[in-house]
Amino acid sequence: MSGSHSVRRPDLGLIALKVYVVAFFAFLMAPIVVVVIYSFSDMAYTTWPITDLSLRWYQRMLEYRPFMSSLAFSLQVAVAAAVLSILIGVPAALALARSGSRYAEAVMTFLLAPLSMPMILLGVALLYYLSWMGLGVSKLSVVLGHTVVSLPYIIRTVAAVYIQSGRSQEEAATILGAGRWQVFWHVTLPMVRAGILAGAIFAMLISLDNLPISFFFAGPDTNTLPVVMLAYQQNQFDPAIAAISTTQTVIAVIMLLIVQRLTGLHHIIGQKR
Amino acid sequence: MVNSDTHSAPVSLRGVTRTFGDHVALHPMTLDIQAGEFVSLLGPSGCGKTTTLRIVAGLESTDAGSVWIGNRDVTHVSPNRRGLGMVFQNYALFPHMSVAENIAFGLEMSRMPKAEIETQVARIIDMVHLSQFADRMPAKLSGGQQQRVALARSLVTNPAVLLLDEPMAALDKNLRETMQYELRQIQETLGTTTIMVTHDQEEALSLSDRIVVMDKGHLLQAGAPQEIYDAPANRFVSEFLGASNLIECEVTGLDGDEAVLSPRGMSGVTLRAAMRPGIAAGEAVTLSVRPERISMSQAQPDSSHQAVPGTIVTHVFRGASHAYQIRMNGVETPILVYEQATGHPETGKRNIGSKVWAHWASEGQTVL
Amino acid sequence: MSLAESHTRPKRRVGWGLQGLGGTLPAVIFLIAFFVLPLVDNTINSFENDGSAAAIDNYVRLFTDSYYIEVIARTLWVSLLSTLICIVLGYPIAYYLVRHTEGSGAFLIFLLVAPLMTSIIMRTYGWQILLARNGPISNWLLDFGLIDRPLATLRSPVSVYFGVVHILVPYMVISIASVLQSVDRRLEEAALILGASRWRAFWRVTLPLSTAGIVTGSIIVFMLCNGSFLTMLLLGNGSVVTLPLLIYQQFILVNDAGFAATMGNVLLFLALACLYLQLRTVRGRGHV
Known about the structure:
The complex is a heterotrimer. Chain B is of the alpha+beta class. Chain B is 23% helix and 34% strand.
């Protein structure tokens, strides 16, 4: 309305909301930012204010063998669990997304159930169960435990992507002369590739951060990074923890950026919880 | 022309039936389509037209009956061995392949040598005017371009039968008309037998050699567009295809080879209709008259015309014509009349409220 | 996601109705072997003890000793309070994300999701630094004269709530935002045109339509909070003992397997109850 141009009153409600949003995100970022800052400090303790900056805690991190060996083990476990989850989870997700069975929903609920279980319970239960099976505290036990948690992430993202994509592309390929495996290889798999990758990266992030299951299987060869970090944090209060945390976060953020490139962040909102 | 040895095959459905649970999607249906014919399956959603198409494609199984393509019973042949082309409603382009890769897919499946694939793809891409888009991904194309890719992909394998599932539904009106002409031209050039599913009557009328009207899983009428338009077999067809005035009448007597009719609610008005076997005095019949077949006049026309008196109640300008509604005393539904907009000062100048006679030649009516 | 939507044409049901589920077999077998059976085994263990007492002795002990009852009650209370705080803190953020972000939306969502990608140990460590007696918050408050003694937050339950809410509030925001997104903005506008004030339009139209998001978010937050122990361990300093923390302590200090299994089973019961509620609310809304 160019004719009746009126001076707008400032929208106090919206301003208050915006101030709150800023405060909220400050709250969300504060503990992370403060750790990153401390990782570059030069002090032996986490005291305030920081006076000098240095890379000594990164050096300490690199020199402290348990950090590096457990990080390597954690990455191995994360990859192994993701691969195992892909192998058994992708067929399940594809089948569920297209199944006309009246039991499809029930099976899906079952396959996603580990997400709803307290991890510490799973850890205790798995320890006694796997010990009884003779696996006990072993690398295989850690991988199996982590796969239980990784599997639902793969199944959920792949099924969601596959349901969204509809079946007409596969039908088109069939009409064009492609057989069952050709359809799967040339059309189905490329369509869900982003879902597999996104699910795998989520699963790996969750695995890297998992303490409650890893904790029960901790041994000389089977210490994961979070287990070592917890032990370190309970005994020492120096910022080496900050350095290794920051390093781990950088790894995670790189993974997240890959997911974003592949699927768009809005996907995550529906998937992650 | 894509290939000189173009082959096209007749298609034949013999008593094909399909039920989904308790719902009968397709009652036993028999339909013969000649080689090179363009047939439209027309009807409202849920009429069974898509099921029919998918049964021909092999994407849906039949409960009974058989499907023949060429001289082969393909009822139990899987869709990838039927030698068909199909354009899907949403085009179903492979999102991870470029235009050229999409089009080449069918040829690769048939293990054609690489060099030949390239020539074939180049030729068909040229035919649908997409040469400069060969390396684009489908997501970067407009709706019309995607449709052309889908069409090219389905035709490049030189299929015996082309199946079109609502191919224009996703396009806007202007583009749809352009694509209709283009599709018809390509189909005539190649001579491929074509079966199209549509709910758009204009599309069916303008593209097909033959229209098959379906409702609730039944085949209601099959015939050339003009034939179906001018002589609908029943009430559903006459109402579904274009606008129609349905005049309920009672047969009051017979006069030579004509029946004398009295329209319900209109006392003193008499209409006539050509005798048809089974018409007897006292029976109720419905006359169907297309609005463009009706004229209006101030004076009562001579008795060679069918005529009913009434009052103009509404007038709408429709671009190519004027639409009038004429209400008769005692009848609830007004008669709809289209008068050609000729530019003549007389047309479109009729006053609401004026008394007129609506009249038509008896050739312009159908007895249902 | 809706499994029902995926097959527009219902297939005829033959035999057991399991057609097309063959592909799920490896995953189902895996989870039966390494998820269901361990939990069953745990339940069996919970009825075992040194042999001198009745099978349900562990449960009798858990539910009669006032200390353990207190622990169970505290577990539920901490979860409940954290859930409420998450609703209050999270709703305005979800609303802002859905209704008021043009362009900045993707960035804010990134900020919201980013903490989920940092380790819980890192975030807990961050709060330990921030809330320390001689940490930045305490120092600033002292400098501005708002307090006259250094904060003792780290020894109180307050720091646990900081940690828990920080970890869980993104889930709440995401749950509410995804429902708000599907609430047609025009409904709000219609209410405004009908003469409602903006506040009333929100209160009468937007909020009721987004309750589904609050409910799902609450169940998720409650469930996750019930199972978390790292925050209680590192930020509570013994001031907030909940079931998972007790299981952890039992395991390293006492190593009483039967009793740990019993407490685990109580947690399992709570988790199953939440899962049941979750399925019911989702199904009630018609899209599973």
